[in-house]
Each structure stands twice: as structure tokens, then as C-alpha cells.
Amino acid sequence: MAAASGWADLDPAAGDSGYPIDVRYTPEARIGRYWGIPVIGYWLRAVALIPHFIALVFLGLAAMLLTLFTWIPVLLTGRYPGWGYAVVGGYLRWGVRVATWLYLLSGTYPSFSGSETEGQHVRVDIDQDRPIGRFWGIPILGIAIRAIILIPHFLVLWLLGILAGFLIWFAWLPVLINGRQAEIVYTIVGGYLRWLTRVGAYLFLLSGPYPPFRLD
């Protein structure tokens, strides 16, 4: 399987998750072995990502500001606005790409874009055609209630984040030896990023269904 041959190579066995927000990886992606050099590989990737970190700060601020208005079309039409998906959804997509590259789950440097981009080893699918209950568009109350009912997810993600952080300390080893990432890292660390993205999207009204309690 080619390292950057496009989205058709993104974990096809996983199929459709059925949830409007999904994150899929290329588990067979080639990753340069030099990135597996202990400490140095992560450090160099973090330095190389500084332009992305700066861009994400500004895009994150724009996403926060837009969240003050995205409830209006949800309340009026029962749908999240396209411009909201472009900015807020783009922020989530961009952030996942950066985290995936930083944690050695990808061999391709992330693109400077929040839109769908070919040739990446991670894909963030956002179904924009799903309706959202107008109730969630009630100012402040809608997001506040979503935050409350997401508390079980926050607790699980906290524990899962500890496990993912532990695995990251050893994720360089399979890259150094095989030039590929281990499946367990995609399952735990990649699953953590997927779960976190779904919860974030639900909290900020990008999706209607309550997120599932699962890594896949």
C-alpha cells in the first residue's frame, strides 16, 4: 500500500462507523525510521509543527467566536451552518492531523488547511447532512446541557488520555524498528483522538446523535 496514495487506503476494513463524525487512519503507512529516534524524533516533529500551532491558535479563536452564533441556524432550521462546519469543523480536522503527525501515527506532514485534503494518512469525516434538534439551539442552555450529559465521556477520556500518554512514550519503538506504527497505538492513541473529536463536535453542535462510548 502506498504511503500517500489517498483516502482509499484509509483503513478500508473499518467500514462506515455510522456516526456523523469519524476519524480514520492509514495503519500501513510508512513512517521514516529516523522519526523513531528516542526523544529526538518527537522533539523535531514538535519544532516542525510550530507554524501549525500558531495557525491553530488563531483558527481556534475564530472557532470560539463563531460558536457564539452557530446556535442561531440550529434553532431556526435544525441544521448546523455550512460556514460553521468550514471553520469549527476545519479546526477539529486540522488539529487531528497535527496530533496524528506529532504522535507518529502519520508519515505525511499535515497540510495547512481545515478542509478535506488528499494524500494525508488521517481523514476526518464530518457528515453535514444530518439534522440537529432545534432544542439544542437554545442560547447557552443547549450547549450547557450537552456539557453536562457529556460528563461520563469526560471521565472516560481522562482515563484513556493517561493510557494514550503512556503508550506515546513507547510509540517510537515500532517506527524505529519497522518504519511503521504498531496497531495497538492506532487502536488506543488513534482511538482516543477519534473519541475526543466526536465529543468535541457534539459539544459544539456539529453533530446530532450522542457520541458512542467506543474507540473505533
Q: Strands, helices and their partners?
A:
Layout: E1 21-25, H1 40-48, H2 50-67, H3 71-77, H4 82-102, E2 122-126, H5 141-149, H6 151-168, H7 172-178, H8 183-203
Antiparallel strand pairs: 1-2
Helix pairs in contact: 2-4, 4-8, 6-8
How does this model look, in words?
This protein is mainly alpha-helical and 216 residues long. It has one domain. The chain contains eight helices and two strands; from the N terminus they run E-H-H-H-H-E-H-H-H-H. The chain has helices spanning 40-48, 50-67, 71-77, 82-102, 141-149, 151-168, 172-178, 183-203; strands at 21-25, 122-126. It has a two-stranded antiparallel sheet with strand order 1-2. Helix 2 packs antiparallel against helix 4. The longest helix has 21 residues, at 82-102.
Number of helices: 8
Low-pLDDT segments, ≥5 res = 1-15
Outline type: elongated
Largest sheet: 2 strands, antiparallel
- Give average pLDDT, whole number: 88
Strand content: under 5%
Number of domains: 1
The helix fraction, in percent, is: 40-55%
Quick structural summary:
With 216 residues, the protein is mainly alpha-helical. It has helices spanning 40-48, 50-67, 71-77, 82-102, 141-149, 151-168, 172-178, 183-203; strands at 21-25, 122-126.
